[in-house]
Specification:
Helices cover 30% and strands 18% of the residues. The chain is an alpha+beta fold. The protein has one domain: HIT-like (HIT family, subunit A, 2-Layer Sandwich). Strands 1-2-3-5-4 form a 5-stranded antiparallel β-sheet, covered by helices on one side. A hairpin with a 3-residue loop joins strand 1 and strand 2. The longest helix is centred in the middle third of the chain and has 22 residues. The protein is globular.
C-alpha cells in the first residue's frame, strides 16, 4: 500500500482540495512552489497505462478544474502538469499521480532541461507505424 493509498483511505491526513468517487487532490508535502498540488486516482495502479478508462477519464475531467483553481488561488503566471511512470522516469510513489506545479515570474516552480535531438525521418516513420499498429 502506497502513501497515496493511505491518504485515500484516511489513515494519513492531507491538505485536501478536491475529491470525488474516483479522484482525490491535495497539496504536495514537498512543494516546488506555493500551490503545488497532486491529483491522484483512487484506483491503485503504478503506471498510467494500467488505469481503467473510467479512472483515466475522471483524471482528465479533474485536472483542468484543479489547475484553474490553483491558478486562481495563487496568481501564478503559468503552471506545469507533470506525470512520471516508473522509477527511471523519476516516479517516487508507485501510484499514478499528476503534479500541478504553479510557475512564478521569479522562477519558483518546475525547472526543466530538455535534451532533445534531431528526429531521423526514416526511423521516425518506422516508429510511428509500429506504435500505430499497436493501437488497433
Amino acid at each position: 500500500m502506497t502513501i497515496f493509498s493511505r491518504i485515500i483511505h484516511g489513515s494519513i491526513p492531507c491538505h485536501r482540495i478536491f475529491e470525488n468517487d474516483r479522484v482525490i487532490s491535495f497539496l504536495d508535502v514537498h512543494p516546488l512552489s506555493p500551490g503545488h498540488a497532486l491529483v491522484v486516482p483512487k484506483e491503485e495502479k503504478a503506471f498510467l497505462h494500467e488505469l481503467s478508462a473510467e479512472s483515466a477519464a475522471a483524471l482528465g475531467c479533474a485536472l483542468p478544474l484543479i489547475a484553474k483553481a490553483v491558478m486562481d488561488s495563487t496568481g501564478a503566471a503559468a503552471y506545469n502538469i507533470l506525470q512520471n511512470n516508473g522509477a527511471i522516469a523519476h516516479q517516487l510513489v508507485m501510484h499514478v499521480h499528476f503534479h500541478v506545479i504553479p510557475k512564478y515570474e521569479d522562477g519558483r516552480g518546475l525547472g526543466l532541461v530538455w535534451n532533445g535531438h534531431a528526429l531521423d525521418p526514416v526511423a521516425a516513420a518506422a516508429m510511428a507505424a509500429d506504435i500505430a499498429s499497436r493501437l488497433r
